[in-house]
Amino acid sequence: MTQAQVLSFSILGAMMLLFIWGKLRYDLVAMLALLASLVAGTVAPDEAFKGFSDDIVIIVGSALVVSATIARSGMIETAIRWVARRVTRVRWQLTVLVGSVTVLSALVKNIGALAMLMPAAFRMAKGSGASPSVFLMPMAFGSLLGGLITLVGTSPNIIVSRVREEITGEPFRMFDYAPVGLGLSLMGMVFLRFAYRLIPAERRAAPTLDEAVGISDYNTEATVPEKSKVEGRTISDLLGIVDGGLVVTGLVRDDKRRNATLPETVLMAGDTLLLRGEPDALDRAVSAAGLQLTRQNEDAKPEASGIIETVVLPPSILVGRSAEQIGLYDRHGINLIAISRSGHRMSERLGATTLAAGDVLLVQGQTAALPEVMETLGLLPLAERSIRLGSVRREILPLAILVIAMGMTAASIVPVAVAFFGAAVMMMATGAISPRDAYESVEWPILVMLGALIPVSEALQTTGGTDLIGAWLSNAATGLPAWAALAVIMIAAMAVTPFLNNAATVLVMAPIAATFAGQLGFKPDAFLMAVAVGAGCDFLTPIGHQCNTLVMGPGGYRFGDYARLGAPLSLLVLLVGVPLILFVWGA
User: Which domains does the chain have, with CATH numbers?
Assistant: First the structure.
């Protein structure tokens, strides 16, 4: 092993450890890896930033704009709302929701498709009396499978296409993924239709806004105003008035926090109580006991102010920050009323609690301003929406532009990057999405990570590192049939992607898989497709993919719930995917 190879492997290993550690943002980790490669000399200075001009960056960025525009058109929600009124049996509701999110994820970014359809899941759950948790995890898994159908369905497909172009001179085209992706999606839909019972039945989530705070373990805080019914009375008296369903988890008096609260503690005006309880109990604490929940906007007219349940999306600016840090009230005019996080008991003041993706928030604000504010903050309403995220404009036009772009790439009239860049520009030019919203819809950390990691991954090839790993793998796989070698690659991608960003997984694994195939005497196509499938199918944890994270809080899931449904689905993907890939692409 040469010195350059040692350095390249060391940087790659350190990068993977930082990804797994999770304390640094993935885009920062990628930039550190690029900087380390420059210092070590494995990446030349004139090659360091060529990744930012790569077609991958243009395609992913443009696809995000197109996806956001389709989401704002309202067409999908209108169709699902029509279906929801006519389908009332749980199993058929599940089939409609999973099928819809699977198909939609082939056209737009999968997390966008999932976010669009989550409110429909809550409406259907209310209609059938089922828990939304029955629908949300299967929908998340369906969105991942749907991303396998087209080139732009998920970022790994785009990266794999680029690697194939470097090796063979021909990239994968728009619908080259469809035979395998459709087969796996159909298999997944059938499995999820019957296997949803693997999700623990006691998992409950927020049904609708009509039920105000439809989660049983909201954490909130309330003050004891002067002349309150409980001023001068004990905590025991308060609990007696509320009549169950409420727990006092802490008390703040004179800016000093007391975690231990005794039933005989006497309440004084100005005390702040940290509460955990059921919706009805919180309501009684306000109405019967005279407590005041958090800070209210006293200047707002009551009829113009609304309260709504929302979930924090993974790209939200709230993730990793508290309401105080973000200036939720002062800057955005939004009051944070309560927080629910699956299995979490509040240990901090409401405004000081660090928010995470998947948290369910009860927020109050001016009804007219809520749509724009929630869009800015990255919050998704969980209840039946009387408001819409973003204005609904030119419903047919965005879909027509998308169909034209996909058709032109499928017919090889223009490259994918040109088609989707043109589609994004036309959507802005026609007013289907404003330039400001278009820029906000782009996940810049993803683009930065891609631009930084492309030269790092290429350094592994230029130093001969991929040849070395390929040789090790081929020696270990000597004598294995094609299907077994293909399974090794798919399993490796599945094993790595819960810990790395799936795009990072493909940047590392795809060149290795192609080299591995070549040294065994096989064509690279099937092995590249196996990497794409393995990296796109993370069903085992809530943290490996944004779609899984998004449904954790609203679904009331625990970490281990994902493996209960995801492990058999992963096994099915392996058992069905390997022969399907070999049938379509050969060895």
Answer: 59-206+414-443 (no CATH), 209-293 (3.30.70.1450), 302-381 (3.30.70.1450)
